[in-house]
Amino acid sequence: MNQPANPSPARRETIIEVRDLVKRYGDNVVHDHLNLDVYRGEVLSIVGGSGTGKTVLLRQIVGLERPTSGTIKVFGESPAKLKPAQLQALRNRWGLQFQRGALFSALSVIDNIALPMRELRALPDNLICQASLLKLQLVGLSAKDADKMPADLSGGMIKRVALARALALEPELVFLDEPTAGLDPMASDDYVALIRELRRELGLTVVMITHDLDTLVALSDRVAVLADRKVLAAAPIPELVKVDHPFIREYFLGDRAQRALQALPAPSRPEAPRPPSGDT
Ligand SMILES: Nc1ncnc2c1ncn2[C@@H]1O[C@H](COP(=O)(O)OP(=O)(O)O)[C@@H](O)[C@H]1O
Ligand SMILES: [Mg+2]
User: Fold this and answer.
1) What single-letter DSSP state applies at residue 280?
2) Tens of pLDDT, residues 103-127
3) CATH of 39-65+75-93+173-268, one of 3.40.50.800, 3.40.1710.10, 3.40.50.300, 3.30.460.80
4) Which of 243, 242, 222, 191 lies closest to 38, judged by CA?
5) Residue 272 above 60 pLDDT?
6) Atom 1 (ligand 1): residue with closest C-alpha?
7) Which residues form the ABC transporter domain (predicted)?
8) What's the gap in Å between 216 CA and the centre of ligand 2?
9) How far is the CA of 26 from the centre of ligand 2 (A)?
10) What dihedral angle (degrees, nearest 10) is formed by the CA atoms of 210, 215, 218, 220?
Protein backbone atom coordinates (compact mmCIF):
# COMPACT_ATOMS: atom_id res chain seq x y z
CA MET A 1 0.00 0.00 0.00
CA ASN A 2 0.94 3.63 0.17
CA GLN A 3 3.86 4.88 2.15
CA PRO A 4 2.75 6.38 5.44
CA ALA A 5 3.38 9.96 4.37
CA ASN A 6 3.42 12.61 7.06
CA PRO A 7 2.19 10.46 9.91
CA SER A 8 2.20 13.27 12.41
CA PRO A 9 0.46 16.51 11.40
CA ALA A 10 2.85 18.46 13.63
CA ARG A 11 5.81 17.34 11.54
CA ARG A 12 4.25 18.09 8.19
CA GLU A 13 6.14 20.47 5.98
CA THR A 14 3.92 22.47 3.68
CA ILE A 15 5.57 22.94 0.31
CA ILE A 16 2.61 24.39 -1.56
CA GLU A 17 0.33 26.90 0.07
CA VAL A 18 -2.68 28.35 -1.76
CA ARG A 19 -4.60 31.02 0.12
CA ASP A 20 -7.78 32.83 -0.82
CA LEU A 21 -7.18 32.20 -4.46
CA VAL A 22 -9.57 33.92 -6.83
CA LYS A 23 -9.34 33.29 -10.57
CA ARG A 24 -11.67 34.89 -13.07
CA TYR A 25 -11.85 34.90 -16.84
CA GLY A 26 -14.17 37.79 -17.60
CA ASP A 27 -17.41 36.88 -15.84
CA ASN A 28 -16.40 33.27 -15.39
CA VAL A 29 -15.31 32.82 -11.76
CA VAL A 30 -13.27 29.63 -11.73
CA HIS A 31 -11.85 29.83 -8.20
CA ASP A 32 -13.47 31.78 -5.41
CA HIS A 33 -11.34 32.02 -2.26
CA LEU A 34 -9.83 28.60 -2.71
CA ASN A 35 -7.35 27.21 -0.15
CA LEU A 36 -5.04 24.23 -0.45
CA ASP A 37 -1.90 22.87 1.22
CA VAL A 38 0.41 20.21 -0.12
CA TYR A 39 2.79 18.46 2.25
CA ARG A 40 6.26 17.19 1.44
CA GLY A 41 6.34 13.54 0.49
CA GLU A 42 2.64 13.03 -0.10
CA VAL A 43 0.65 12.10 -3.16
CA LEU A 44 -2.16 14.62 -3.31
CA SER A 45 -4.81 14.00 -5.93
CA ILE A 46 -7.20 16.63 -7.20
CA VAL A 47 -10.62 15.56 -8.39
CA GLY A 48 -13.64 17.50 -9.56
CA GLY A 49 -16.11 17.62 -12.40
CA SER A 50 -15.01 18.63 -15.88
CA GLY A 51 -14.41 22.38 -16.12
CA THR A 52 -14.17 22.92 -12.35
CA GLY A 53 -10.72 24.45 -12.69
CA LYS A 54 -8.31 21.64 -11.89
CA THR A 55 -5.93 22.42 -14.73
CA VAL A 56 -6.23 26.16 -14.16
CA LEU A 57 -5.28 25.59 -10.52
CA LEU A 58 -2.12 23.69 -11.52
CA ARG A 59 -1.26 26.30 -14.13
CA GLN A 60 -1.40 28.99 -11.46
CA ILE A 61 0.66 26.95 -9.00
CA VAL A 62 3.43 26.52 -11.55
CA GLY A 63 3.31 30.17 -12.64
CA LEU A 64 1.86 29.68 -16.13
CA GLU A 65 -1.19 31.76 -15.18
CA ARG A 66 -1.60 34.60 -12.73
CA PRO A 67 -4.18 34.51 -9.97
CA THR A 68 -6.77 37.30 -10.07
CA SER A 69 -6.15 37.66 -6.34
CA GLY A 70 -4.91 35.62 -3.40
CA THR A 71 -1.51 34.04 -2.86
CA ILE A 72 0.24 30.91 -3.99
CA LYS A 73 3.54 29.83 -2.49
CA VAL A 74 5.65 26.96 -3.68
CA PHE A 75 8.75 26.25 -1.60
CA GLY A 76 8.03 29.58 0.06
CA GLU A 77 8.08 31.60 -3.18
CA SER A 78 5.21 33.15 -5.14
CA PRO A 79 5.61 32.23 -8.83
CA ALA A 80 3.47 35.19 -9.93
CA LYS A 81 5.81 37.65 -8.20
CA LEU A 82 9.14 36.34 -9.45
CA LYS A 83 11.27 37.75 -12.23
CA PRO A 84 11.69 35.38 -15.19
CA ALA A 85 15.14 34.13 -14.11
CA GLN A 86 13.96 33.49 -10.55
CA LEU A 87 10.83 31.74 -11.82
CA GLN A 88 12.98 29.52 -14.02
CA ALA A 89 15.13 28.56 -11.04
CA LEU A 90 12.00 27.68 -9.08
CA ARG A 91 10.58 25.72 -12.01
CA ASN A 92 13.68 23.58 -12.09
CA ARG A 93 12.62 22.20 -8.71
CA TRP A 94 9.54 20.51 -10.13
CA GLY A 95 8.58 18.39 -13.11
CA LEU A 96 5.41 18.70 -15.14
CA GLN A 97 3.48 16.13 -17.05
CA PHE A 98 0.53 17.92 -18.53
CA GLN A 99 -2.36 16.38 -20.36
CA ARG A 100 -1.73 18.15 -23.62
CA GLY A 101 1.50 18.79 -25.45
CA ALA A 102 3.02 15.66 -23.97
CA LEU A 103 5.98 15.26 -26.31
CA PHE A 104 7.57 17.20 -29.15
CA SER A 105 6.68 15.13 -32.19
CA ALA A 106 9.75 16.24 -34.16
CA LEU A 107 12.16 15.12 -31.44
CA SER A 108 13.20 11.54 -30.70
CA VAL A 109 12.50 9.96 -27.33
CA ILE A 110 15.97 10.71 -26.01
CA ASP A 111 15.92 14.30 -27.29
CA ASN A 112 12.54 14.89 -25.65
CA ILE A 113 13.95 13.72 -22.33
CA ALA A 114 17.15 15.71 -22.79
CA LEU A 115 15.35 18.94 -23.58
CA PRO A 116 15.02 20.38 -20.04
CA MET A 117 18.69 19.64 -19.38
CA ARG A 118 19.78 21.22 -22.66
CA GLU A 119 17.73 24.30 -21.87
CA LEU A 120 19.74 24.74 -18.69
CA ARG A 121 22.90 25.14 -20.78
CA ALA A 122 24.97 23.96 -17.86
CA LEU A 123 26.00 20.43 -18.81
CA PRO A 124 28.08 18.98 -21.65
CA ASP A 125 26.00 17.04 -24.14
CA ASN A 126 27.57 13.63 -23.51
CA LEU A 127 26.58 13.90 -19.86
CA ILE A 128 23.08 14.97 -20.84
CA CYS A 129 22.77 11.92 -23.10
CA GLN A 130 23.91 9.59 -20.34
CA ALA A 131 21.55 11.15 -17.84
CA SER A 132 18.67 10.95 -20.35
CA LEU A 133 19.33 7.24 -20.87
CA LEU A 134 19.22 6.71 -17.11
CA LYS A 135 15.89 8.52 -16.92
CA LEU A 136 14.59 6.36 -19.75
CA GLN A 137 15.48 3.27 -17.76
CA LEU A 138 14.03 4.76 -14.60
CA VAL A 139 10.59 4.81 -16.23
CA GLY A 140 10.89 1.23 -17.44
CA LEU A 141 12.01 1.81 -21.03
CA SER A 142 15.33 0.79 -22.56
CA ALA A 143 18.13 2.21 -24.67
CA LYS A 144 16.61 0.63 -27.77
CA ASP A 145 13.66 3.02 -27.42
CA ALA A 146 15.92 6.07 -27.34
CA ASP A 147 15.86 6.89 -31.04
CA LYS A 148 12.18 6.19 -31.64
CA MET A 149 9.91 9.04 -32.59
CA PRO A 150 6.77 9.85 -30.55
CA ALA A 151 4.52 8.76 -33.45
CA ASP A 152 5.92 5.23 -33.13
CA LEU A 153 5.12 4.85 -29.43
CA SER A 154 2.09 3.36 -27.68
CA GLY A 155 0.01 5.55 -25.37
CA GLY A 156 1.63 4.01 -22.31
CA MET A 157 5.13 4.61 -23.66
CA ILE A 158 4.33 8.25 -24.45
CA LYS A 159 3.25 8.79 -20.83
CA ARG A 160 6.46 7.17 -19.62
CA VAL A 161 8.67 9.33 -21.84
CA ALA A 162 6.78 12.42 -20.70
CA LEU A 163 7.37 11.32 -17.12
CA ALA A 164 11.06 10.75 -17.81
CA ARG A 165 11.26 14.28 -19.14
CA ALA A 166 9.43 15.60 -16.07
CA LEU A 167 12.06 13.85 -13.94
CA ALA A 168 15.01 15.07 -16.00
CA LEU A 169 16.13 17.75 -13.58
CA GLU A 170 15.66 15.47 -10.56
CA PRO A 171 12.77 17.41 -9.10
CA GLU A 172 11.46 16.99 -5.56
CA LEU A 173 7.94 17.66 -6.76
CA VAL A 174 6.00 16.53 -9.82
CA PHE A 175 2.68 17.67 -11.23
CA LEU A 176 0.71 15.17 -13.27
CA ASP A 177 -2.43 16.24 -15.14
CA GLU A 178 -4.60 13.22 -15.98
CA PRO A 179 -1.57 10.95 -16.33
CA THR A 180 -3.57 7.79 -17.07
CA ALA A 181 -6.21 9.38 -19.31
CA GLY A 182 -6.49 7.46 -22.55
CA LEU A 183 -4.52 4.46 -21.35
CA ASP A 184 -6.01 0.99 -21.39
CA PRO A 185 -6.48 -0.57 -17.94
CA MET A 186 -3.27 -2.58 -18.07
CA ALA A 187 -1.09 0.33 -19.16
CA SER A 188 -2.81 2.40 -16.52
CA ASP A 189 -2.02 -0.14 -13.77
CA ASP A 190 1.59 -0.28 -14.93
CA TYR A 191 1.83 3.48 -14.79
CA VAL A 192 0.38 3.55 -11.29
CA ALA A 193 2.92 0.96 -10.15
CA LEU A 194 5.69 3.06 -11.68
CA ILE A 195 4.61 6.23 -9.88
CA ARG A 196 4.38 4.37 -6.61
CA GLU A 197 7.87 2.97 -7.03
CA LEU A 198 9.39 6.31 -8.09
CA ARG A 199 7.74 8.00 -5.18
CA ARG A 200 9.24 5.46 -2.80
CA GLU A 201 12.70 5.57 -4.35
CA LEU A 202 12.97 9.28 -5.00
CA GLY A 203 10.89 10.58 -2.09
CA LEU A 204 8.85 12.63 -4.54
CA THR A 205 5.92 14.82 -3.67
CA VAL A 206 3.23 14.23 -6.28
CA VAL A 207 0.31 16.51 -7.14
CA MET A 208 -1.92 14.70 -9.56
CA ILE A 209 -5.18 15.50 -11.30
CA THR A 210 -7.11 12.39 -12.15
CA HIS A 211 -10.69 11.30 -12.60
CA ASP A 212 -9.68 7.67 -12.67
CA LEU A 213 -10.87 6.07 -9.44
CA ASP A 214 -8.47 3.16 -9.52
CA THR A 215 -5.49 5.48 -9.94
CA LEU A 216 -6.85 7.69 -7.21
CA VAL A 217 -7.31 4.91 -4.70
CA ALA A 218 -4.02 3.23 -5.53
CA LEU A 219 -1.83 6.31 -5.16
CA SER A 220 -3.37 9.05 -3.06
CA ASP A 221 -2.49 9.88 0.52
CA ARG A 222 -5.04 12.68 0.37
CA VAL A 223 -7.59 13.75 -2.18
CA ALA A 224 -8.65 17.36 -2.70
CA VAL A 225 -12.15 17.77 -4.09
CA LEU A 226 -12.78 20.81 -6.26
CA ALA A 227 -16.41 21.86 -6.26
CA ASP A 228 -18.35 25.11 -5.90
CA ARG A 229 -15.17 26.98 -6.98
CA LYS A 230 -13.30 25.88 -3.87
CA VAL A 231 -11.44 22.96 -2.41
CA LEU A 232 -14.38 21.46 -0.62
CA ALA A 233 -12.21 19.11 1.41
CA ALA A 234 -8.71 17.65 1.26
CA ALA A 235 -8.37 14.43 3.21
CA PRO A 236 -7.62 10.73 2.98
CA ILE A 237 -10.41 8.94 1.09
CA PRO A 238 -12.00 7.27 4.13
CA GLU A 239 -12.48 10.71 5.72
CA LEU A 240 -13.51 12.37 2.52
CA VAL A 241 -16.42 10.05 1.85
CA LYS A 242 -18.01 11.20 5.10
CA VAL A 243 -18.34 14.74 3.75
CA ASP A 244 -21.92 15.37 2.80
CA HIS A 245 -21.87 16.91 -0.66
CA PRO A 246 -23.58 15.83 -3.90
CA PHE A 247 -20.32 15.53 -5.86
CA ILE A 248 -18.69 13.42 -3.16
CA ARG A 249 -21.71 11.15 -2.83
CA GLU A 250 -21.92 10.67 -6.55
CA TYR A 251 -18.21 10.25 -7.08
CA PHE A 252 -17.21 8.04 -4.16
CA LEU A 253 -20.32 6.13 -3.27
CA GLY A 254 -21.53 4.85 -6.65
CA ASP A 255 -21.06 1.22 -7.71
CA ARG A 256 -17.85 1.91 -9.64
CA ALA A 257 -16.39 3.73 -6.69
CA GLN A 258 -17.30 0.96 -4.31
CA ARG A 259 -15.47 -1.52 -6.53
CA ALA A 260 -12.40 0.74 -6.70
CA LEU A 261 -12.45 1.30 -2.95
CA GLN A 262 -12.16 -2.44 -2.36
CA ALA A 263 -8.45 -1.82 -3.01
CA LEU A 264 -8.14 0.10 0.26
CA PRO A 265 -7.15 -1.91 3.34
CA ALA A 266 -10.35 -3.07 5.02
CA PRO A 267 -10.16 -0.98 8.23
CA SER A 268 -9.94 2.26 6.27
CA ARG A 269 -12.53 1.34 3.65
CA PRO A 270 -15.60 3.54 3.81
CA GLU A 271 -18.91 1.82 4.30
CA ALA A 272 -21.18 1.37 1.34
CA PRO A 273 -24.16 3.68 1.41
CA ARG A 274 -27.06 2.24 3.34
CA PRO A 275 -30.23 1.39 1.47
CA PRO A 276 -32.85 4.06 2.04
CA SER A 277 -34.83 2.05 4.57
CA GLY A 278 -36.11 3.22 7.96
CA ASP A 279 -33.45 1.20 9.81
CA THR A 280 -30.62 2.98 11.54
N1 LIG B 1 -7.16 30.62 -20.93
C2 LIG B 1 -8.45 30.61 -20.58
N3 LIG B 1 -9.27 31.64 -20.91
C4 LIG B 1 -10.57 31.65 -20.54
N5 LIG B 1 -11.14 30.67 -19.83
C6 LIG B 1 -10.41 29.63 -19.49
C7 LIG B 1 -9.02 29.54 -19.83
N8 LIG B 1 -8.52 28.38 -19.33
C9 LIG B 1 -9.55 27.77 -18.71
N10 LIG B 1 -10.68 28.51 -18.80
C11 LIG B 1 -11.97 28.18 -18.19
O12 LIG B 1 -11.74 27.85 -16.83
C13 LIG B 1 -12.60 26.80 -16.42
C14 LIG B 1 -11.80 25.68 -15.81
O15 LIG B 1 -11.03 25.04 -16.80
P16 LIG B 1 -10.05 23.83 -16.48
O17 LIG B 1 -9.16 24.17 -15.36
O18 LIG B 1 -9.38 23.47 -17.78
O19 LIG B 1 -11.06 22.67 -16.05
P20 LIG B 1 -10.73 21.17 -15.62
O21 LIG B 1 -11.20 21.05 -14.20
O22 LIG B 1 -11.58 20.31 -16.52
O23 LIG B 1 -9.27 20.94 -15.79
C24 LIG B 1 -13.42 26.41 -17.63
O25 LIG B 1 -14.65 27.08 -17.54
C26 LIG B 1 -12.61 26.94 -18.79
O27 LIG B 1 -13.43 27.25 -19.87
MG1 LIG C 1 -8.12 19.67 -16.99
Assistant:
1) -
2) 899 999 999 999 999 988 888 999 9
3) 3.40.50.300
4) 222
5) no
6) 25
7) 16-253
8) 16
9) 19
10) -10
